[in-house]
Amino acid sequence: MNDGDTDRRVVDGRFELESRVGGGGMGTVWRARDLLLHRSVAVKEVRPADPDLAEYDPDSARMLRERVLREGRALARVQHPNVVTIHHIVDGGEGTYPWIVMELVEGGSLADRLARAPMTPAEAARLGRGVLDALRAAHAAGVQHRDVKPANVLLRTDGRPVLTDCGIAAIRDSTALTATGSIIGTADYMAPERVTGGDGGPAADLWSLAMMLYVAVEGHHPLRRGTTLATLAAVLHEDVPPPRQGGALAPLLAAVLVRDPGARPDAETTDRMLAAAEQAGDEPTATSYPLAPARNAVPAPIPTPSDTVVPSLDRQVRVRRAALASVAAGAVLVGGITWVAWPDGNGNKASASTTTGGQHSTPASTPRADTPLPSPATRLATGMLTPDGIRMALKAIEDKTGRDTFGDLAVYPEYVSVKAMVPGSRTRYDSYTYHPGRGVEKGPLNGTLMGTEPVSLKNYRWDLLPALLTLAEQKLNVDKPMSRYLLLQAPSRLSNTPAGMAVYLSDDYATGYVLATPQGKVTNVVPADG
After folding, report:
1. Strand pairing partners for 487?
2. Span 178-197, pLDDT tens digits
3. What stretches of 58-115 adopt beta strand conformation (E)?
4. Residue 419 marked in a binding site
5. CATH numbers and ranges of domains, the chain
6. Per-residue pLDDT for 81 more than 70?
7. What b/e sequence results for 410-447 when a residue is b if at least 16 CB atoms lie within 10 Å of its CB, and e otherwise?
8. Which residues are catalytic?
9. Distance (Å, whole) CA 149 – CA 234
10. Residue 355: pLDDT above 80?
11. Cα-atom radius of gyration of the chain, to the nearest Å?
12. What does the alpha-carbon distance between residue 293 and residue 125 come to, in Å, rounded to a whole number?
C-alpha cells in the first residue's frame, strides 16, 4: 500500500481507501475508490484475529494466506446476483496477507437491519430464498460458505440479499486450512456436524441459513450461551426450542434445525417451503410442529465494559448493579450492599444484609441479616451440577490430561466442559468434556485465550454451589427455570475483571445470574427481565 502526498492510502497503486465500513475476525472492510475505472468498490484487508500469528506460528500465517487466495479465486467463479462480485485480489507475496476487491453493496447488512427490529415470517422467508439461491450457486461451483450469518448477508438498496465473506468459504474436498486457534465459522450458526470436525456438506450451510432465519423472526438466538465453548456444547447436545414468532416459517425451521444432516430437506425442498411461507403472509400459525420441547434458553454473558449487545438480536438482561464490599460474615458495613454466602454446621446457608451511613437496615427487597435464606433445595443441584459432580469431573480431566489450569468451565446437569491449558502455556488451550458413564472426551475446540487469564480451580468453594442455586431461584425472577448451569468468569486483563463463577437460571426467553467470587461470596445479582 502506498501513501500519497495528501496522506491518501492507496492499495496496489489503484484502490484509494476512503472509510472503514465493517470488520471482524478475518479483517477489515473499506469503502474505496477504483482510480482506474472511477467507481466505488469494497476492499477487504484480510488479517488474522491475532496480529502476532506470523511471528509465533508462521506456518499457520502462510496457510491462511494460501486459503484466502485459493477460496477467493474459487468464489470469483460464482456469478450470481445474490453473491457479492469479486473484482480483483491483491497479493503481495510471501509474508503478506491478501486484499480482496469486491463490489460495494450500499444497503448495510442483515445484522444492521435486525438491530432495528425482528422480521415478519414472510419477510424472513423472502430474504431466505435469496440467500438460498446464492448458496445453491456456490454449492454448484464446489464452494461451501461455512459462515452464513446476519453480518455476512448484505442488502442492496431495494432489499435484495447478497451473500459475502470469501475469507471463510471453503472449496469442497480441499484440505481444511485454518489459522491456529481459529474456528472456521461462527459458533452461533455452525451446524453440529461441523462442530465435531466434519465437512458437513451443503446441508450444514442450510442449518446456518435456518438458524439465521430463526434469529431474524425471534430476535434472539436459541442456543447462544455465555461462552463460545458453552455455545458449541449447546449446538451439539441441545434441541432447538420452537419459535414463538415463526408463523408460516415454523415448519421450515422445524425441518432443517435437526442435528442429523441426512434428515434435513435438500435445497430444492427448502426453497419450496420458503416459498410457501412467503406466500402465506404473516397470519398467525399454530406452532405444534415436531421440534423438541425447549429445555434450555438464551443465557446472556457476564457483562464486561467491552461487551456490546445488539438489542434486537439478544434478549437484554436487566443489569442491576449494587455497591459492593467484601467483608467477613458479621462485619459492620458503611454504605452499599453485600451478599455473603457461607456454610454453617447444619449445611450450606445464604444470607444478606445492608447498612447505610453506618446504620444497619433491612430493605424490603432483601432478607433480614439475622434470617438466613432457606436451606438449599436438593432438587436444584442435580447430576454434574453439584459439588461432588464438579470435583469428580475435574479430577477425571486432570487424571487423563495432566492439566489442572483452565481458561473456561461450563457445568450443566448432564456434563462438564473445560478449556484446559496446554502445559507450559498461559494462552493455548484444548477443550475437553466429561460425561458420566462416558468419561473424558477431547472436544473440537483448541486455540488461544484472548484477553483472559487461566486459573486453577483447586481453591474454588464448590460446597457453596447449592446455596448459590437457592439464592438464584429466589432472586432472579425466573419462576419456572428450564435450565440451570454454572460458568467460570475468567479474570480479564482487558476489563480488569476478577476471577469468579456465575450461576444461571433460564426460561424460554429470559436469563438471570448470580455472580460470586471463587470463595462463594456473592458480588452481583442480575435478575431476568420481568
Report:
1. 410, 502
2. 433 445 567 889 999 988 87
3. 86-90, 99-103
4. no
5. 2-280 (1.10.510.10), 317-530 (no CATH)
6. yes
7. bbbebbbbbbbbbeeeebbbbbbbbeeeeebeebbbbb
8. 147
9. 18
10. no
11. 25
12. 24
